[in-house]
Amino acid sequence: LPVFVLQVWLWRHAGAWRGREGAPYSTLVPSDEVTINYRHGLPVITLTLPTRSERCQFTVKPVVTTVGAFLQDVQREDKGIERVEVFATDGNKVSDATLMEVLLMNDFKLVINNTAYSVSPPVKDKLSSEHATEMEDIKSLVHRLFVALHLEDHQIRKERELLQKLDHLKEELLPLEQMKARIMDSAGVKTSRLLWVGLALMSTQGGALAWLTWWVYSWDIMEPVTYFITYGSAMAFYAYFVLTKQDYIYPDVKDRQFLHYFYRKSKTQHFNVERYNKLKEDLAEAEESLRRLRQPLHLRLPIQEINDKD
């Protein structure tokens, strides 16, 4: 008898010590209080609500339902539940983002208020490897379809964020666009002026050669002069190619000179070209994301991937 009394005393004090160590629950209820049965392929979890003291069944969809969603359903069913959590057998808390399919693979503890229920899910029949692979493909497809069909709230929130981002980018780009337009106008005027100056110089050169040929000297004297002028022009074009690695093509030369004036004017006007380009890229990406978000649902589903599996 003294030995029995000593064992009872040690058992009680050990329980008190465990309680003082911060255990997540104080009472452990046998597993028959929470049962899990499969009906039509879906698990049905039956438990006793603490406030109403009545049994309640919860049918879950293990492929798409998370632990957090299941716990919220339990709290909505009984408003007297202040705390409901799920722990693994080793005492670690199960994340709310865990799928019920993963939770039902092993034993776990369901804690409601200060009462812990030991739950042992039934063992399902083993499937063949081929059938299991097909089931996994079907589950994956169903999960993707469920996510795609229940993204209305997420889509609205994402669309609102993209619209706000577009407005912010446009506000930042507006003064830069105005400054860029002024700089481009100035660079365009200077480039056109340079082209007209080139035409005037060539016309002057041609007139001077004609005057020297017919009024001052003869062709016999001016022929070597024109030859060296032509050869000097060829050397100038070749030097342009050596320096720029581009052929002397008039549209390319015009664009190159335009960019030269543009960047020189940008420095004097403190126009940040890199920041402008970055904002334009962000604006294009945001517009593309918004366009894809507003596409019909059948255009955004991975149809090709589904066909490949078929």
TrEMBL record:
GO BP: any one term: mitochondrial calcium ion homeostasis
Signal peptide feature range: 1-16
Keywords (A to Z) from UniProt: Calcium, Calcium channel, Calcium transport, Ion channel, Ion transport, Membrane, Mitochondrion, Mitochondrion inner membrane, Signal, Transmembrane, Transmembrane helix, Transport
Chief place of localization: membrane
UniProt GO molecular function: calcium channel activity; calcium channel inhibitor activity; uniporter activity
GO terms for cellular component: uniplex complex
Membrane topology of this protein: Multi-pass membrane protein
Presence of keyword Phosphoprotein: no
The keyword Metal-binding is assigned to this record: no
Cellular location(s): Membrane; Mitochondrion inner membrane
Protein task: Mitochondrial inner membrane calcium uniporter that mediates calcium uptake into mitochondria. Mitochondrial calcium homeostasis plays key roles in cellular physiology and regulates cell bioenergetics, cytoplasmic calcium signals and activation of cell death pathways.
The protein's name: Calcium uniporter protein
Residue spans crossing the bilayer: 194-213, 225-243
Domain Calcium uniporter protein C-terminal: 77-279
Family to which this protein belongs: Belongs to the MCU (TC 1.A.77) family.
Domains: entry comment: The selectivity filter, in which calcium ions are arranged in single file, is composed of two acidic rings separated by one helical turn along the central axis of the channel pore.
Designated gene of the protein: MCUB
PANTHER family (UniProt xref): CALCIUM UNIPORTER PROTEIN, MITOCHONDRIAL (PTHR13462), CALCIUM UNIPORTER REGULATORY SUBUNIT MCUB, MITOCHONDRIAL (PTHR13462:SF6)
